[in-house]
Specification:
Mean pLDDT of chain A: 91
CATH topology of the largest domain in chain A: Rossmann fold
Radius of gyration of chain B: 13 Å
Low-confidence stretches of chain B: none
CATH superfamily of chain B: Response regulator
CATH architecture of chain B: 3-Layer(aba) Sandwich
Number of helices of chain B: 5
Mean pLDDT of chain B: 96
Number of strands of chain B: 5
Strand order of the largest sheet of chain A: 6-2-1-7-8-10-9
Radius of gyration of chain A: 19 Å
Distance between the termini of chain B: 11 Å
Strand content of chain B: 15-25%
CATH superfamily of the largest domain in chain A: Vaccinia Virus protein VP39
Order of helices and strands of chain A: HHHHHEHEHEHHEEHEEHEEE
Strand content of chain A: 15-25%
Number of domains of chain A: 2
Largest sheet of chain B: 5 strands, parallel
Number of helices of chain A: 11
Shape of chain B: globular
CATH architecture of the largest domain in chain A: 3-Layer(aba) Sandwich
Order of helices and strands of chain B: EHEHEHEHEH
Largest sheet of chain A: 7 strands, mixed
Oligomer: heterodimer
């Protein structure tokens, strides 16, 4: 792909969704745009970029940005953090939530594996947490990713990335070449389209927010801004989960939990009055 | 170094699996059917077995049942790796003592993830 095309696409992704795409990611951009070009019937990436330039507010721009914003995901990705949620975060929260309600937000849920992993975790541990009512909200920028997430249908490749075989047998049904999650789990997650660049105070507050491998796509300023707004959306005793090798970088709001794994505790004294 | 026995009647599959597992720091032994695999296990019990199902002489399920009867045969972590992908068959394999299960086709990421789940990495 031509350097000026890459520059144009990077500027567009930054303006529309705060995505930070360096020159070293040319291969990634070309790959994603080639898939989009095929799907939408454009003869080449070059032709697609020409259309993006010609119609900067057209529907294709939104599709292009979405395709660049969809991160890789898998069931129980970085599984140690799910163990920590089960063994530390959930018991801790439940001790202070007599009604058993724990609200979790999967922010940047992509095709849904993270949200379903949480729902599976709750169902698998029903005996250990008898009162637990886990409410999962999952949001993403990409409506295509959300559509797939909501369908609960995954390929054989996808269900083998991170999902232990016994959990596959217990929670999925084989449907042709694919595997479909149980209706109960599918209905236990609420889905919504959301651009994390925009205000999300209407979503209310959550006990746990997972925002993994999303921040690294953002520029420094929007990243700090997003972290502040995530802190405001988090209960005082809540936990933030970032990608295993992502740092919150906002010490006044989040302190790393012992043991790392991308787990942060909200600093209870962090002011609620934020933008 | 942990030892993994790769059991598959296809030389190509054994070669691919060997390359992936060597990348995960396993020492590899190979067998082309269940009978050969039993002989390997009797000589030196491996830490892990990557096991095909359909094979001549002795299939994977029969091998697994016999392995679990052997002295020390309950120890190896057995990961099926087969094109059998019907839930009933998978349940049958787990019932016979398999620890994890890979449906072919597989790649390095899947083997790594499954071996991690089975506590091998």
């Amino acid at each position: 792909m031509k350097p000026e095309d890459l520059e144009f696409v990077a500027a567009m992704a930054r303006a529309k969704a705060g995505l930070m795409i360096g020159g070293e990611r040319a291969y990634f951009v070309e790959n994603r745009l080639a898939t989009l070009a095929r799907r939408e019937g454009w003869p080449s990436v070059e032709a697609l970029v020409a259309e993006l330039r010609a119609a900067p507010d057209g529907p294709l721009v939104r599709m292009a940005v979405e395709s660049l914003a969809t991160p890789e995901t898998s069931f129980f990705r970085d599984y140690p953090v799910f163990d920590r949620l089960r063994d530390e975060v959930l018991p801790d929260l439940l001790a202070r939530r007599p009604d058993g309600r724990v609200k979790v937000w999967s922010a940047g849920c992509s095709t849904g594996q993270e949200a379903y992993s949480l729902a599976i975790l709750a169902e698998e541990n029903a005996a250990r947490f008898p009162g637990l009512q886990l409410e999962v909200l999952a949001t993403d920028l990409s409506s295509r990713a959300l559509e797939k997430a909501q369908s609960g249908v995954y390929t054989q490749f996808e269900v083998q990335r991170g999902l232990p075989i016994r959990l596959l047998l217990r929670h999925f049904r084989k449907t042709g070449d694919n595997w479909t999650i149980s209706p109960r789990l599918r209905q236990s997650v609420r889905w919504g389209r959301l651009n994390l660049m925009n205000d999300f105070t209407r979503l209310g507050r959550y006990d746990v927010i997972l925002c993994r491998n999303v921040l690294s796509y953002f520029d420094a300023a929007p990243r700090q801004n997003l972290l502040r707004r995530l802190a405001a959306a988090l209960a005082d005793d809540g936990a933030l989960v970032l990608g295993a090798d992502e740092a919150a970088g906002l010490p006044e709001a989040f302190e790393p939990a012992r043991g790392g794994a991308g787990l942060y505790r909200r600093n209870a004294s962090f002011g609620r009055a934020v933008a | 170094m942990k030892m993994c026995l790769v059991v598959d009647d296809s030389r190509v599959v054994r070669k691919v699996a060997r390359r992936i597992l060597e990348g995960l720091d396993f020492e590899i032994a190979e067998a082309a059917d269940g009978m050969e695999a039993l002989a390997v296990c009797r000589a030196a019990m491996p830490d892990a077995v990557l096991l095909d199902w359909g094979m001549p002489v002795m299939d994977g399920l029969e091998f697994l049942r016999r392995l679990r009867q052997e002295p020390g045969g309950e120890a190896p972590v057995v990961v099926f790796c087969t094109s059998e992908n019907e839930p009933e068959r998978i349940a049958e394999a787990l019932g016979a003592g398999a620890d994890e299960y890979i449906m072919k086709p597989f790649d390095g990421d899947i083997i790594e993830a499954k071996f991690a789940q089975a506590g091998l990495l």
